[in-house]
Design a protein that fits this description.
The complex is a heterodimer.
Chain A (H helix, E strand, L loop, with lengths): L1 E12 L2 E12 L3 E5 L6 H9 L6 E6 L2 E5 L4 E2 L2 H4 L2 E3 L11 H11 L4 H14 L15 H13 L5 E5 L7 H17 L3 E6 L2 H7 L2 E6 L2 E6 L1 H6 L4 H7 L2 E7 L2 E3 L2 E6 L2 E7 L8 E7 L4 E3 L10 E11 L4 E7 L2 E7 L6 E5 L6 E2 L1
Parallel strand pairs in A: 3-9, 3-10, 7-8, 8-9, 15-22
Antiparallel strand pairs in A: 1-2, 1-4, 4-5, 5-6, 10-11, 12-16, 13-14, 14-15, 16-22, 17-21, 18-19, 18-21, 19-20
Helix pairs in contact in A: 3-4, 3-5, 4-5
Chain B lengths: L2 H26 L15 H8 L1 H34 L5 H8 L1 H4 L2 H12 L4 H10 L9 H11 L1 H14 L2 H9 L4 H12 L1 H17 L2 H7 L7 H11 L5 H34 L16 H27 L17 H8 L1 H32 L5 H14 L3 H14 L10 H11 L1 H13 L3 H9 L4 H30 L15 H11 L2 H30 L1
Helix pairs in contact in B: 1-15, 1-18, 1-19, 1-20, 2-15, 3-8, 3-9, 3-12, 3-14, 6-13, 6-16, 8-13, 9-12, 10-11, 12-15, 14-15, 16-26, 17-26, 18-21, 18-22, 18-24, 19-22, 20-21, 22-24, 23-24, 24-26, 25-26
The chains are: A alpha+beta, B mainly alpha.
Chain lengths: 354, 555
């Protein structure tokens, strides 16, 4: 069942178009990441859902109820939409205690005192801060403040919870813990959540579905796995992982595959952009898909190329090797290697031609 | 606030700002006071004023004084700012608060101080004559007036330049040092040029204040008949025997016409200046520049300036308030007395003036801050034509010197039937004060409001609070501290205000400032110095409170 529907949303600041027609559906109980670079419109989209920005065209519906409809002149103010939002800076009110920060939403809803006490205590317990209600925000660590911000957004059971870069203010170690913690909490409460991030690892770790945005448009939407293994464009493939890029021209095409060339060696890859023969194309392969092999191999030795080892970097769990092949470099992971020429295998199903 | 409330507040402000100005312009085209039944439209008032030699004399004097004092205040103020903000000058922390004193003492009080210290029969003059046998200065000349006006306006330049210098990161100076520039060269080629827009702004501000000058020329220019625009206006009341409203209106229109472009220019420069500094340099920890042996001449220069502009006039004034007589050969210790203060208590209008001043500064100041807060909230986080209109409206009262605004408010209360019973109450004074300090107060409060991030208010909307509740539950409590310090500044400002109440002075509306102006005219020096001393003590109390509060909120 669709919980949140966005239809053809456009938004501009003056003459600058920020959102250029966003259409998306968010299902009940789903965690969706809005992923993109800064300036891609992801935060603006989130703020439009929250009612903090006013689009010039389009429809936003929560449940079955439209909250924004430009054509009908409908724009329900933020406070009437009943959503929860966790701000990037947390935006905890410094003059209220943790308890009062969380309780404010319930006070506005005239919840009786006893019930209010009990609900705030429950949600604070839920985020692991049950004992810190009397503190003021400035007496807490960044991680604790983030939990308070989440508690404040959850306490009145919003139909959809929005999170704006919720982890960006935490340090690296804390962030990894918080990813798992937030996902577990949202899943346990069976909430619909939309969160903004520029970090593809974070998006993949937390979200059920990722919506990748660029320049105010949706580039691709799908499960983290789909986005990682089947990117629809060069941009999507670059955004989601660490790649080798091979600049070339399409030499030949056959059965959904296209042939490109790396310093004279033919390479077959999946034809992902439908480029014609002799058109310029880019071959893309993830670093971890490049295999170092013993030799040219049997048969026709398809997609195997010789390359000179230029340098190796030790990264703890593995080595990263940089190879030179003609005028281009290729990187691969693997065990330590001696200097000299090595053979690399680029499996055709893992090499995408855009 | 919702849209309708916002618009209502802005419209109310527009009426309050435009009514006095409209009335003045209307009056300037009449041939008699506006309340007389038979008045006709005419240009005769303009013809009269433009034919009056005294008017052009006053205009010329205003120009000369404004230029002269700018030429003195800007270099001294900029140098002082650099020494205080950027160097290892000894005793910086002690000097800093004293530098601003001339800003907080009303200029008419300072002027009295100069008279009793440096006037022909002043303390310092007599002492100098007794010691050296001659006196090399004459207080009542135009040159002296320019020098005094210039030196007493140094704090304005200091304030804007030093705050800009402080927000400038050390890194830009360190970069200059790394490429091989010495400390002096760094100051002249990097630091000062980078704050040039702020210095320029301060220069225009001082020039503008020069045009508005009233207290200093009233006291120091009068004995030699040196008139400036404001004193010309003040004297005009008595010039023709009967109050000639239309002539006064013409002079007011002239003053506003000169002031308005200057105000617009200041606004433009301030924006340019803020843009310039905010993008440059990282405001990291600043290391003061070492100026070596130059510390001592620099410190001596600052001490001399402080001695002349603060110590001499104020100590002279306070001393004068406590002695019964003085002159050549009189031992001051023998003539110490409290008689002047006792005398003060015998005049009901003077005691009323003291009480009224306390009331207008405390209660009135708080109400004004309330008004400024309302106005700011009406425009808060709202992009629209209405807020732009408000931006410009705020500037209009700024173009009216206190004397002029007081006159205009007086007329408004006279003109509007339902307001006229309030004319002789403190309400009229409060309206005038609030209007005169509108731009200043708005800036104080908006500074406090800008301190809170927009997301704190957005968070309130998201959890379900209406705009009104957000203001009440979040915005106001968050700016409480800022509002309190705004009130303290307004308190001191209202305490020292002297020119706005001059035309509104009536039984029941006495304030210290306007009483001082009228008492000076009668020559009651004993009372004037005693009342001035009371005023200084009250301002001192306000400043003390401010520094205590500042310490607490910083710690």
């Amino acid at each position: 069942m669709a919980k949140l529907i966005i239809d053809d949303l456009h938004l501009s600041y003056g003459s600058t178009e920020i959102l250029k027609g966003i259409t998306a559906t968010f299902a009940q109980g789903e965690i969706v990441a809005l992923l993109g670079r800064s300036g891609s419109g992801k935060t603006t989209l989130l703020r439009s859902i929250a009612g903090l920005e006013e689009p010039k065209k389009g429809v936003i519906s929560i449940g079955d109820q439209p909250v924004f409809d430009a054509a009908a002149g409908l724009n329900v103010p933020s406070e009437k939409r009943g959503l929860g939002l966790v701000f990037q800076s947390y935006a905890l009110w410094p003059h209220k205690t943790v308890f009062e920060n969380v309780a404010y939403g319930l006070r506005l809803r005239n919840v009786p005192k006893a019930e209010l006490q009990q609900r705030v205590a429950a949600v604070l317990d839920g985020v692991g801060l049950g004992h810190l209600g009397d503190r003021y925000p400035h007496q807490m660590s960044g991680g604790q403040q983030q939990r308070v911000a989440l508690a404040r957004a959850l306490v009145y059971n919003p139909p959809v919870i929005l999170l704006d870069e919720p982890l960006s203010n935490l340090d690296a170690k804390l962030r990894e813990e918080a990813r798992i913690w937030i996902r577990t909490l949202i899943k346990r409460m069976n909430l619909t959540a939309v969160f903004v991030t520029h970090d593809q690892v974070e998006a993949m770790a937390i979200a059920d579905r990722i919506v990748l945005l660029d320049g105010g448009r949706i580039v691709q939407a799908g499960t983290p796995e789909q986005l990682y293994t089947e990117p629809v464009s060069l941009f999507a493939s670059e955004f989601m992982g660490v790649n080798n890029q091979i600049k070339s021209r399409v030499q030949d095409k056959r059965g959904g595959y296209a042939r490109i060339e790396l310093s004279g060696h033919p390479l077959w890859g999946k034809d992902r952009a439908g480029k014609g023969v002799s058109e310029e194309a880019t071959g893309v392969i993830r670093l971890e898909q490049v295999e170092v092999v013993d030799g040219p191999g049997g048969g026709d030795g398809e997609n195997r190329i010789p390359a000179e080892l230029e340098t190796s970097v030790y990264l703890g769990s593995h080595w990263e090797h940089v190879f030179r092949c003609g005028d281009q470099t290729l990187r691969a992971f693997g065990r330590p290697l001696p200097a000299g020429t090595h053979w690399l295998h680029l499996p055709p199903e893992q090499l995408w031609v855009f | 606030m919702n849209r309708a409330t916002r618009i209502a507040v802005i419209v109310a402000m527009a009426i309050a700002v435009l009514a006095p100005i409209g009335l003045v312009v209307y009056q300037s085209f009449l041939d008699g006071p506006f309340f007389q039944p038979k008045t006709a439209f005419t240009f005769s008032a303009y013809e009269f004023v433009l034919d009056d030699e005294d008017f052009f004399d006053a205009l010329y004097n205003s120009c000369v004084i404004a230029f002269g004092m700018t030429a003195i205040a800007v270099p001294v103020g900029a140098m002082l700012a650099f020494l205080m903000a950027r160097t290892d000058l000894p005793g910086r922390r002690w000097i800093e608060p004293v530098i601003l004193v001339p800003m907080f003492v009303s200029s008419v009080v300072l002027a009295f101080g100069f008279v009793v210290s440096l006037g022909p029969a002043g303390f310092v003059t007599l002492w100098f004559k007794g010691t050296f046998g001659f006196v090399p200065w004459y207080l009542y000349s135009k040159t002296t007036l320019i020098v005094i006006a210039g030196l007493t306006h140094v704090p304005h330049v200091f304030l804007y330049t030093s705050s800009a210098l402080r927000s400038l990161g050390s890194d830009v100076e360190e970069a200059a040092r790394m490429t091989g520039a010495g400390p002096l060269r760094t100051a002249l080629t990097v630091s000062l040029p980078m704050v040039m827009p702020n210095i320029l702004y301060a220069a225009v501000l001082v020039f503008f204040l020069g045009f508005e000058l009233f207290g200093l020329p009233l006291v120091l220019g009068d004995p030699e008949g040196i008139l400036v625009l404001a004193t010309y206006l003040y004297k005009l009341t008595n010039k023709l025997g009967t109050p000639s409203y239309q002539l006064m209106a013409v002079v007011v229109v002239a003053i506003i016409c000169i002031a308005l472009p200057l105000v617009a220019l200041q606004r433009f420069l301030l924006r340019a200046a803020n843009r310039y500094v905010s993008v440059k340099g990282k405001a990291a920890a600043q290391k003061p520049v070492s100026i070596g042996v130059w510390r001592w001449p620099a410190a001596a220069m600052i001490a001399a300036w402080l001695l002349f502009t603060v110590v001499v006039p104020i100590s002279g004034l306070v001393l004068r308030a406590f002695v019964s007589s003085w002159g050549e050969g009189v031992n001051l210790l023998d003539v110490l007395t409290l008689a002047h203060f006792r005398e003060l208590m015998e005049f009901p209008n003077l005691t009323r003036g003291i009480v009224n001043t306390l009331l207008i500064a405390s209660v009135g100041g708080a109400l004004s801050v309330g008004v400024y807060t309302m106005l700011n909230l009406a425009a808060h986080r709202w992009q629209s034509g209405w807020t732009k209109l408000m931006d410009y409206l705020v500037l209009l009262p700024r173009a009216m010197p206190g004397l002029v605004a007081g006159l205009a408010i007086f007329w408004v209360f006279l003109f509007t039937p339902f307001l006229s019973p309030l004319r002789q109450t403190m309400i009229a004074i409060w309206v005038a004060y609030t209007l005169v300090w509108l731009a200043y107060g708005m800036r104080l409060v908006s500074g406090a409001l800008l301190q809170i991030g927009p997301e704190l208010e957005e968070a309130g909307r998201i959890v379900g609070a209406s705009p009104g509740r957000v203001s009440r539950d979040l915005t106001i409590p968050l700016v409480k501290v800022g509002l309190f310090s705004s009130w303290l500044l307004i308190f001191v400002t209202f305490m020292r205000e002297y020119s706005t109440g001059v035309y509104l002075l009536a039984p029941g509306t006495e304030v210290i400032g306007s009483l001082l102006v009228s008492l000076w005219g009668t020559g009651a020096v004993d009372l004037v110095t005693a009342l001035s001393t009371v005023n200084i003590a009250m301002i001192g109390g306000g400043l003390l409170l401010m520094s205590l509060f500042g310490k607490r909120s910083h710690g």
